[in-house]
Each structure stands twice: as structure tokens, then as C-alpha cells.
Amino acid sequence: MIITVLNRFQAVILRKYLRKNHPETFMIITNSSEIIGKGFRGFDLNSNIDK
């Protein structure tokens, strides 16, 4: 299993590649409104989320 984060353009390219080269595979695509972690938008640990 591979889990990755892609923009729409990249997802289309990956889907076309998989259909052509590995037709036995499948993809699950889901939308995300926020991704936090290394290489993505940061977050402030000192912020008060209860405000």
C-alpha cells in the first residue's frame, strides 16, 4: 500500500499511468481540506484552539 498526497493534476497523471502500466491496481481518492506535517503547512503548538 502506498499513501500519498497529490494535487489534482498529479492525481490525473498517476491514474493514467496506473491504468496503462498496472491495470490490476486500484486507487482510492479523497479530498482533504488540511494537511499538517513535515513539508506541508505548519501549525502553532502554542495556539489556543479553544478560543
Structural summary, described in words:
With 51 residues, the protein is an all-alpha fold. Helix content is 27%, strand content 0%. It has one helix spanning 8-21. The longest helix has 14 residues, at 8-21. The chain is elongated, with a radius of gyration of 16 Å. The model has no long low-confidence stretch (mean pLDDT 80).
* Helical segment count: 1
| Rg for CA atoms | 16 Å
- Describe the main β-sheet briefly: none
N-to-C CA distance: 39 Å
User: Helical percent range?
Assistant: 25-40%
β-strand percent reads: under 5%
User: Helices and strands: which structural class?
Assistant: mainly alpha
Low-confidence stretches: none
In total, the number of strands is 0
Mean pLDDT: 80
SSE sequence, one letter per element? H
Q: What is the general shape?
A: elongated
